[in-house]
């Protein structure tokens, strides 16, 4: 049987692959210290679940408008205005999709085509290059290692822009590095994007997960010119521990949002109807939402510092102090192993699960998620220390 060029060209998500292997080992009775998870370990807040249950009971179980339930799109427009600072945001520029991941794909499909180039800073979230390829476009990877805080510079962008360049992808706070761009850094990148009349896909899925007193900046809020070319991706997965609900959002300039709505209407149709009604509660009850978020942030921050201290106490490992999301991305190059081999040996020999950096375009690193319990962090650090001492 013949497969399509798209199918032949795509690799499966390596983060989900690690997850599957770890679940297999756990099912066979192994005691694994898992740092692989790409999702919060908290349950979805009860008031959101209650709202979804109520929606089910009310029969909100049918197709909805394909771009999203109108009440949710309106509430999201208000959130894009008040939280993200995109003053002009209105409901018809907002799309609700089956996941932030799908929002990213829709954004790329609506703006990039065969031969177009999309600039993706590495380390990057695993799915961006694959999505770009599925659109027939060409990923242009720009390296931003720990020596530059995992952040790409305006000069680096300038150096790779050609007349085929169509879009730049920025993800702050970042998965896998946890790195955060300052407002000034973002403004400098946006200036280059405007100068060359490019699109910006700003993946802001971790927009509420900041530490060390930092807070979020949305490029689309910088100016009218910035808003006109920025697609701001968000979602409920990371903020409200709703990964399994499959609910993403985006804000885009009206013509782009319209095109995205058409693509969605012909592919996924609407995101799950009662899930959208549950998510609406998160926006309509900001006090409950804030309380749930703060509880999670306090735990994440404690674990972040615990893991960071532990990692930096291990000879040969160098870890940047990440200030967002829930990941650390230590440099393991001093051990002389490819990240796949390092992670595989660590899992099989020391029963510690991490995600190799190779899938993120950064083979000198591995990703550890601290969306896990304090006791697993403690246990995992001990095992990692022993493993590294064996080199
Ligand atoms: C988790 C994640 C998403 C989207 O997740 P969904 O569950 O599809 O909403 C998007 N971008 C990044 C960088 C992520 O880590």
Q: How would you characterize this protein structure?
A:
With 391 residues, the protein is an alpha/beta fold. It folds into two domains: 5-44 and 289-389, Aspartate Aminotransferase, domain 1, CATH 3.90.1150.10; 62-284, Aspartate Aminotransferase, domain 2 (3-Layer(aba) Sandwich), CATH 3.40.640. 43% of the residues lie in helices and 13% in strands. The chain is built from 14 helices and twelve strands. A seven-stranded mixed β-sheet has the order 2-8-7-6-5-3-4, with helices on both faces. A three-stranded antiparallel β-sheet has the order 9-12-11. The protein has a two-stranded parallel sheet with strand order 1-10. α8 links the parallel β5 (165-171) and β6. α12 runs parallel beside α14. The longest helix is centred in the C-terminal third of the chain and has 27 residues, at 286-312. It starts with a helix and ends with a helix. The model has no long low-confidence stretch (mean pLDDT 96).
